[in-house]
Design brief:
The protein is of the alpha/beta class and 336 residues long. Helix content is 28%, strand content 19%. The protein has helices at residues 8-17, 46-60, 83-93, 122-133, 176-180, 192-215, 246-258, 284-288; strands spanning 34-39, 67-70, 100-102, 149-151, 156-164, 167-171, 221-226, 263-267, 274-276, 298-302, 310-316, 324-330.
Amino acid sequence: MRRRLVFGATIALALAGVTTGTATAAQPPSQAGFGFAVIGDIPYGASEIAQFPSVVNQINADPGVQLVGHLGDIKDGSSVCSDAYFAAVRAQFDRFVDPLVYTPGDNEWTDCHAPNNGGYNPLERLQAVRHVFFPNPGKTLGGQSIAVQSQADRGLPENVSYQRAGVAFAALHVVGSNNGLAPWTGQTAPTREQSTEVQQRTAATLDLINQTFDTARGQRAVVLLMQADMFGPWPNPSLTGYSGFQEIVRTIARRSAAFDGPVYLFNGDSHVYNTDKPLAPGSTWLGLYNVATPAPKLTRITVDGDAVNDYLRATINPSGPQVLTWKKVPFTASRG
């Protein structure tokens, strides 16, 4: 959601052209447990665009990773939301050896109304994102595409769920900019078409959250992936900037409180690594979102973004008290 200056037309060409390094074949799953990488808010600006092929190479070479999750914001907030740029990022996504689950961020469609983003209609850009990144609903991106449950029948091919190693996963299209309700350029309030899109997407997302918890009965944990930081570090939060997340937070809270195991929410958006329990007893977020029942079993993990120096490697442990553990893996000095 933060914005930095880049040089739009040159960027797509740079990303398309820099493909140094050969993708390393995926290694067998670690005996220590199923592992997945999580990244977000990348590539973000000219330097990261040039280095992104090396990022892909490094994750491909990690034997502890069998799946990759990208939490959205494939560009910074001050660059053009062009078809050429989308195609260039898609080409890099295709270089991931492992399956890639991508959920969109606000920078690639919600905020594209801004003049320095090209002055697009965001809803037109949303359809472009779906066309480029989700042409085969029910299948992941990456070299080893796997089948996932998709909400393509509701017009949201990006909303998917799947299960791995006794854990239920869901990638949820929930974005910053108040989940897409922030007024477009020249407006003081959401337009009718803007509000309709948010209502429809939110309704589908709520259903996916509930379905994921329903199918997780008997599973060890639930993992939710999204772009938006619904518990962000912004000073003096008020419901004005968070109103688009109300029902989503309440539903996650209610289902997490009733679930037998731990729930992990991975998000990007605010760019600084953080882990906390935002809906534990005593949290100020309970009051802001009018959450009736605390959810102490919910752990939120924010990945580093913008000037990214690492990716997150998460591991589903086959036994022990910690179902999921994670660590930051620094990018190698040789990238770029």
